[in-house]
Write a structure and sequence with these properties.
This protein is mostly helical. Among the domains are: 133 residues, Serine Threonine Protein Phosphatase 5, Tetratricopeptide repeat, CATH 1.25.40; 137 residues. Helix content is 70%, strand content 1%. The chain has 22 helices and two strands. The chain has a two-stranded antiparallel ribbon with strand order 1-2. α11 runs parallel beside α13 and α18 runs antiparallel to α19.
Length: 410
C-alpha cells in the first residue's frame, strides 16, 4: 500500500487518509501553523508507515530540549522497525532522523542534502535541511537548499520565504527582500518571509522600516505556532531598541516574549537575549530574570546546541550564583571533550571559551570578557543562530570596550 503526497511523492505503507494527514502537516510545517502537532495522531494511526514515524520524531527533536529527545524515542523505534517498507527517499529521511537523534547534526544535514538533490520536489525535506544548516551555522548549505526550492516550487506558498532567509544569511540583501516580498504576495501569512525581510531591514539599519513592516504583518501571526510568534515579536522588540524606544521593547517582552511556553528552549533564549540587550542599554528589568533563570537551571547538563548553551550560561551567571555558572561551564567543557570532527572544534575552541567570556561579562569582569571574546567574534557563526541573534555577543564586546550603556546612547 502506497499513497502519494501533494507533491506526487510516495508514502510507503500509507493509505489516502494518512496522505491527507501528512499533507496537512507539511502545510502547517512550512507555514509555521499551530496545527503541526496533529501529525502525531496521523503517525499513531498508521504505525506501519516509516516516513510518518520519522517526521513525528523530527517534530519532537525540534523542540530542542531533552524532553524532545525522550518523546521522539518511540517514534524512532517504530521507524526502525518498519524501515524495510520505505522507499529510497524515505530511507534517506529516516537515516537523517537517526543521525539527528544521535546528535550527529552534520550527518543529518549531509543526508538531507543528498535527498533533496535527488528529489527537489520534497519541500518538507528542504525545510528540514535548512533547519540543520542554520543550527550548524552553514550559510552555504542554507542557500543550497533554497536554490533547490526554486527548481520545483516557483509558485508554491512558503517556498520563497525559505529562499529569502537563505539569501539574507548569505548577505544578498536586495535579492532577499525581493524574494520575501514575492513570498508575501503568494501567501500573505508567510511569517518566515516576514522574518526574512525583517532581517534585511535590521542588517541595513532600517529600524523604522522594520518596526512598521512587522507591525503591518503581526495580525497574521495569531494563528501561528509559538516559535514564529515569539521570534517575530522578538524582532519587533529589536527594532524598538534600534529606535531608542526601550519602554516599548520592554512592553513587547512582557506581552509577547515570555510566559506562553516557558519550558520551550526558543522562548528561553529569546528572553535571555532581550533582557541582556535591555540591560546593556541601561534599563532596569526588575525581577524578570528570575523565571528565566529557573528554566536555564533545568537545562544544565543537556548541552545539545552551542548557541543555546551560551544563553543558558549567561542567565546563570547573571543570576549571581557563581557556583551554578561555573558548574555549567565545567559540564559544558566535559561535553566538549566527547565531541569529534567539526563538532569538537565548535564546542572546544569556540563555545567553551565564549562561555567563560560571558561569565566574566555577567560578573562585571569586562576587560577579561573582552579579551576572551575578541578572537572568537569572526567564528561565532559556527555556534548557530542568525546574524541578528549573534549580534548580542558583539554588543557585549562593544559594551566592554566602549564604556557600557553609553556606547548605545552616544
Amino acid at each position: 500500500m502506497t499513497a502519494r503526497d501533494k507533491f506526487d511523492l510516495p508514502i510507503a505503507a500509507a493509505d489516502p487518509k494518512a496522505a491527507v494527514g501528512y499533507d496537512a502537516y507539511v502545510q502547517e510545517f512550512l507555514s509555521y501553523g499551530a496545527g503541526i502537532r496533529d501529525l502525531f495522531a496521523v503517525a499513531d494511526a498508521t504505525p506501519e508507515a516509516p516516513l510518518l514515524s520519522a517526521h513525528a520524531a523530527a517534530l519532537h527533536l525540534a523542540f530542542e530540549g531533552a524532553e524532545g529527545w525522550q518523546a521522539a524515542r518511540p517514534y524512532i523505534a517504530r521507524m526502525r522497525q518498519t524501515i524495510d517498507a520505505a522507499t529510497e527517499r524515505e530511507k534517506l529521511f529516516c537515516a537523517a532522523v537517526d543521525a539527528w537523534a544521535a546528535l550527529d547534526f552534520s550527518k543529518a544535514l549531509a543526508l538531507l542534502d543528498e535527498l533533496t538533490v535527488r528529489w527537489p520536489a520534497d519541500l518538507c525535506s528542504i525545510k528540514w535541511g535548512q533547519y540543520h544548516a542554520f543550527n550548524l551555522g552553514d550559510q552555504a548549505a542554507l542557500l543550497r537548499f533554497g536554490d533547490r526550492a526554486h527548481l520545483v516550487h516557483e509558485e508554491t506558498p512558503y517556498a520563497h520565504g525559505m529562499i529569502a532567509f537563505a539569501l539574507e544569511q548569505c548577505h544578498r540583501l536586495r535579492e532577499a527582500e525581493e524574494e520575501g516580498m514575492r513570498a508575501s504576495e503568494i501567501a500573505i501569512d508567510d511569517a518566515w518571509a516576514h522574518h526574512a525581510i525583517a532581517h534585511v531591514m535590521e542588517t541595513e539599519g532600517r529600524a523604522a522600516d522594520g518596526a512598521r513592516w512587522l507591525d503591518h504583518c503581526a495580525h497574521t501571526w495569531e494563528k501561528k505556532g509559538v516559535f514564529i510568534r515569539d521570534h517575530n515579536w522578538w524582532h519587533a522588540a529589536l527594532f524598538r531598541l534600534g529606535l531608542g524606544r526601550y519602554d516599548e521593547a520592554l512592553e513587547i517582552y512582557d506581552k509577547r516574549l515570555w510566559g506562553v511556553w516557558p519550558e520551550f528552549p526558543q522562548e528561553q533564549i529569546g528572553a535571555v537575549s532581550m533582557l541582556w540587550r535591555l540591560e546593556m542599554r541601561g534599563l532596569n528589568v526588575g525581577d524578570r530574570w528570575a523565571p528565566v533563570v529557573e528554566q536555564a537551571r533545568a537545562r544544565a547538563g543537556e548541552h545539545l546546541f552551542p548557541f543555546h548553551d551560551l544563553h543558558y550560561v549567561y542567565a546563570l551567571a547573571r543570576a549571581g550564583e557563581q557556583h551554578e555558572a561555573q558548574a555549567f561551564e565545567a559540564s559544558l567543557q566535559r561535553k566538549a571533550e566527547t565531541k569529534t570532527g567539526d563538532a569538537a572544534y565548535v564546542w572546544q575552541s569556540i563555545t567553551a571559551p565564549a562561555a567563560a567570556a560571558l561569565i566574566d561579562f555577567a560578573q562585571t569582569r569586562h576587560q577579561n570578557a573582552a579579551t576572551k571574546l575578541k578572537p572568537l567574534l569572526n567564528e561565532l557563526h559556527r555556534v548557530g543562530g542568525s546574524h541578528a541573534q549573534r549580534h548580542v555577543f558583539v554588543e557585549a564586546y562593544d559594551y566592554c570596550r566602549n564604556g557600557g550603556a553609553a556606547a548605545f546612547n552616544a
